[in-house]
Amino acid sequence: MQLLDIATYFTSESDVSRVGKGPLADTDLARLYAYPPRPRRPWIRANFVASIDGAVTADGVSAGLGTPSDKVVFSVLRSLADAVLVGAGTVRAENYGGVTFPAETVARRTERGQSETAPLVIVTASANLDPTSRAFTDTVVPPVVLTTTSAPEDARRSLAATGARVVATPGDSVTTASIVESLNTLGLHRILCEGGPGVFGQLLTDDAVDDVCITTSPVFVAGTAGRISHSASSSIRRMTRAHVLADDDGTVLTRWVKHRDGSAAAAGHK
Ligand SMILES: NC(=O)c1ccc[n+]([C@@H]2O[C@H](COP(=O)([O-])OP(=O)(O)OC[C@H]3O[C@@H](n4cnc5c(N)ncnc54)[C@H](OP(=O)(O)O)[C@@H]3O)[C@@H](O)[C@H]2O)c1
Known about the structure:
By secondary structure, the chain is α/β, with parallel strands linked by helices. The protein has helices spanning 13-16, 26-32, 68-80, 88-94, 103-111, 134-137, 153-160, 176-185, 197-205, 264-268, and strands spanning 2-6, 43-51, 83-87, 120-123, 144-148, 165-169, 190-193, 211-217, 239-246, 252-258.
């Protein structure tokens, strides 16, 4: 995987000198995908993989779209995050487990003053999650569940009984403002949203996304798969290209940050 292009306003001279200079090490990737230093509010980054024709799944899950370089960047992004924000649809479809890191990643996180692992923060209106599923049982730390007071009380109680922190806010869905407020209250500022399209669509509509990492897998899928975002209404959000990486197998990995006028890029680096 190598760096094809980088936005010079957004990074350091040492990264500019890496353009076209061959394979990137994990340390190069960690620098290219660094969060802003000491963010004082949740910085929301999303990461998705899609096919050339925009499909977000192949046979109902994203795994069929993954490539070796996508997996490397997926791991680097997790290693930098305070928390992984994910919608219940994705947790159910992909049988999500908790995030785990090798010892050297834990050591680097500790050096940076981050917690040893990044908890899952699951958004669900219904609280219809299986408390015996991997998100609750195959995890180093219990997840946080952001749900609503409309969700059945017994469902909320059975999730809390697993050790999960269950935060219920009034209404039929969890607003973007309360997602951000909960993350902030928990001191979780480097956020990696791994989807799915429902959560991401809402965050985009509410202009809450600072940073988007997209892997284009070198395949066409056709079929009926959806896109990486969906929401009731459409809105145009201008983004700035931060960098483009490419792997020999045809995978293209891009990073987009909120347009400078939208201030996130300017606030991010330098
Ligand atoms: N290619 C990729 O990178 C990628 C990444 C992630 C997911 N995916 C795929 O995307 C598909 C899932 O799509 P999806 O749209 O169902 O995903 P999703 O956004 O993960 O899940 C939607 C569900 O999340 C909950 N939810 C979302 N926003 C909410 C809010 N504001 N308040 C309360 N609950 C909220 C609701 O759960 P309840 O129904 O429990 O109320 C809703 O039904 C799967 O097939 C997965 O494999 C692909």
